[in-house]
Design a protein that fits this description.
By secondary structure, this protein is an alpha/beta fold. The chain folds into 2 domains: 219 residues, 3-Layer(aba) Sandwich (Rossmann fold), CATH 3.40.50.2000; 170 residues, Glycogen Phosphorylase B (Rossmann fold). The protein has an 8-stranded mixed beta sheet, with helices on both faces. The longest helix is centred in the first third of the chain and has 18 residues. About 1% of the residues have low confidence.
Length: 397
């Protein structure tokens, strides 16, 4: 495989025996988490590693590795091993068939190294369909498919290939976890005979994002949004609300998504960001997200209810917003409607304006402690405990 120039980088494993090899069989069930590139997949790995051995692996091609310059967080649980592999461009696409034997041997090796002294293999968490051909030697009763999104939306030209790979994973996997309830329904409809193993497993929240001191006061008369400023936001809806609330300060924290095509929503976004009662803060580090949420008097998620990504997603904004302890307003996207006691749904600009006025000027009652208690029950540590219990209930040892 030298011709492929595959490189292992930035591994946190100490030389010699890994935590997985040292600890497997001496505590909780071990986990092998592949493609832990996203913050939320890695967050699950960190939380699982609080109770037992976990090995998180990231894959990048050379171009993205150079562009993103990824680094692991400096603090991590003692039972967490981390490995990063840099691959040739096309390793999961055009040249996958060439790379496949190497990747299969690599994953098989990680799997064997993680088998506990009691003979238990690790659960292997697979968050992307492209991994399917590399996992065919992993026992089906150890395979977990972790569905993060409707993946065909990433590249519609590869819909057939993505569907085939995903169907293979759903058929083989012992358990299918879906971030979004919408995806549970969609996958169960495609695989009705396997509906029982397809379950809702929404995003958790980092403990550091949960408001730690209720005496911390927000900036008065502010409504805030944290996230990319792109097509998923309903800018027409936002423009109307902003114009009709001239005394309220609207804060947008996030990067401005760009593109060649000058679509109408881009013009509307530019209009919104130019308004005198709007403040734009650029992209911020993930570690600082919580403090921005804490600074808002009201948080909102003005998402386009027709955008396909919004329909099939579990936005990080839900739990991050609730963790702030501030009133949280959202448009009626499916995942937000699952929490009617916590999230205030605005089905029109009029409803949003009335909710904002109620919280900012009319002294509407808001139970901060109840909201923070709720967020605490949805931390990543709780998610990890839920997953271990789910697997234990279905697969007792």
């Amino acid at each position: 495989m030298g011709a492929l120039l595959v490189t292992r980088r930035d591994s946190s494993n100490a030389p010699g025996v890994s935590h997985m090899e040292r600890e497997a069989g001496h505590g909780e069930q071990p986990f092998l988490i592949l493609a832990a590139n996203t913050p939320w997949v890695y967050a699950l790995g960190e939380a699982l590693a609080e109770q037992g051995p976990v090995h998180c692996i990231r894959f990048y091609d050379w171009l993205n590795y150079r562009r993103l310059k990824p680094r692991w967080p400096t603090q991590f649980p003692s039972m967490l091993d981390r490995t990063m592999w840099v691959m040739p461009p096309g390793y999961a696409g055009s040249f996958e068939i060439v790379v496949r034997p190497f990747m299969r041997r690599l994953i098989d090796g990680w799997y064997r190294a993680s088998i506990s002294a009691a003979g238990r293999g690790p659960y292997v968490i697979c968050p992307f369909p492209y991994l399917a051909p590399w996992l065919r030697n992993v026992p089906a009763d150890r395979l977990i498919y972790y569905n993060l999104d409707e993946y065909t939306l990433y590249d519609p030209s590869r819909t057939e290939r993505i569907r085939t790979q995903e169907d293979e994973l759903i058929t083989r996997a012992y358990c299918v976890l879906c971030l979004a309830r919408y995806q549970v329904d969609a996958l169960q409809a495609r695989h009705p005979t396997m509906a029982r193993k397809i379950v809702h497993f929404p995003l958790g929240v980092q403990q550091s994002n949960i408001l730690s001191d209720v005496s911390i006061a927000p900036v008065a008369n502010t409504v805030g949004y944290v996230g990319n400023l792109g097509a998923r936001v309903d800018w027409t809806f936002v423009a109307e609300v902003v114009d009709r609330c001239p005394q309220t300060i609207f804060i947008f924290v996030g990067a401005i998504e760009t593109g060649i095509r000058q679509l109408r929503w881009r013009e509307t976004r530019a209009y919104v960001l130019s308004r005198p009662n709007v403040r734009h803060v650029g992209e911020v580090a993930q570690a600082d997200v919580g403090q921005h949420y804490w600074s808002f008097a009201v948080s909102w998620m003005p998402y386009d209810i027709c955008h396909p990504f919004n329909l099939a997603s579990c936005p990080t904004k839900i739990m991050d917003g609730l963790a702030s302890g501030r009133p949280f307003i959202s448009t009626a996207i499916p995942e937000a409607e699952l929490y009617p006691d916590m999230i205030h749904i605005a089905r029109s600009a009029d409803e949003a304006i009335n909710l904002i006025a109620g919280f900012l000027t009319s002294g509407a009652m808001h139970d901060v402690k109840r909201q923070l208690d709720f967020a605490g029950l949805h931390s990543w540590s709780h998610r990890a405990a839920e997953l271990r219990k789910l697997l234990e209930d279905r697969h007792p040892h």
